[in-house]
Design a protein that fits this description.
Order of helices and strands: HHHHH
Number of helices: 5
Bound molecules: zinc ion
Distance between the termini: 32 Å
Strand content: under 5%
Helix content: 25-40%
């Protein structure tokens, strides 16, 4: 059974997001990093730093933007970061452009 990270929405965590496990995707240490900072704030930080894969081998074809978009939370993100992530905003505006944008 896999679990979803509440911060980056990576949904292949082999363990629940707690007990000091660390998300291999965004690097959040559950129970520590998220003890005093909200998931949405941690997500903002992760995205602002480039939404990079944290450690280990990332899944083939993995894309943070795709992952965020699939989570259904992309809209919130777009509202909070209107300028710095224009590419992602464009992706939200033109869903048909997915393949092109993701390959950039
Ligand atoms: Zn994560």
């Amino acid at each position: 059974m896999n679990y979803r990270c509440p911060v980056c929405f990576f949904d292949e965590l082999p363990y629940p997001p707690r007990d000091y496990h660390i998300c291999p995707c965004c690097g959040t240490e559950f129970g520590n990093d998220d003890a005093e900072v909200s998931d949405s704030r941690l997500r903002e930080i992760w995205i602002t730093q480039g939404a990079k894969w944290f450690f280990g081998k990332r899944p083939e074809g993995w894309s943070p933007w795709h992952q965020l978009a699939e989570s259904g939370n992309a809209f919130k993100f777009r509202a909070s970061q209107p300028h710095r992530h224009q590419r992602f905003a464009n992706l939200m505006r033109e869903p048909n452009e997915f393949p092109r944008v993701l390959s950039m």
